[in-house]
């Protein structure tokens, strides 16, 4: 017992214990961390081509090694999904300094976007690009997706994904034209003011259900004219303009007939 107590008081004991604790923590995380289906099978040629595209088109702002600056974020560790989302939606490269990078026609093909993503992914681990099965809306449940979307997303994106205004010149974009892959990538990377929804918040199945719900909103509306799908605001304005317009018209007509 005395020998054991003496070993505990050895000056190297804290270092050894800390090393063992870190090793054990890493092993437990690797064993229990949720896996996600990601199509990150880029080879050395794609990574090299992505590096060339990055140096030519992105390094002016993000630095030659993607390290960023005081005003531009580092891309090390953001993952392939973040780069693919920003590039394929045309948000990057930005065409002007503004509170938010808006979507526009992309300057790169999907292949080039994936090559850029592969290069950035080689610099540090991060969320990967999902495969087709993970984002297939046909495999999702639109009814469950509706509940999840209205609980987690509707306060910004509107209850059918029509978008809405935020503060300081920012906005939540409409999701009408977003592909399933883009929607999934946005959820796992949290672009702009959007929070990140990892698998602890929304499982892969939950995300696919949300995608199924949003895709279902693109079908013809059985209720007729959607009024922009803005809810009670547009409906109230329509009722006010039409209803009061008819009442005023009727009053004027009655007044003209009686005079």
TrEMBL record:
Sorted UniProt keywords: Cell membrane, Electron transport, Heme, Iron, Membrane, Metal-binding, Repeat, Respiratory chain, Signal, Translocase, Transmembrane, Transmembrane helix, Transport
Reactions performed catalytically: a quinol + 2 Fe(III)-[cytochrome c](out) = a quinone + 2 Fe(II)-[cytochrome c](out) + 2 H(+)(out)
Residue ranges of every copy of the Cytochrome c domain listed in the record: 45-124, 140-218
Signal peptide as annotated in the record: 1-39
Primary enzyme class: translocase
Enzyme Commission number, as recorded: 7.1.1.8
Localization in the cell: Cell membrane
Pfam families attached to this UniProt entry: Cytochrom_C, Cytochrome_CBB3
Record note on quaternary structure: The cytochrome bc1 complex is composed of a cytochrome b (QcrB), the Rieske iron-sulfur protein (QcrA) and a diheme cytochrome c (QcrC) subunit.
The protein's name: Cytochrome bc1 complex cytochrome c subunit
Classification of source organism: Bacteria, Bacillati, Actinomycetota, Actinomycetes, Micrococcales
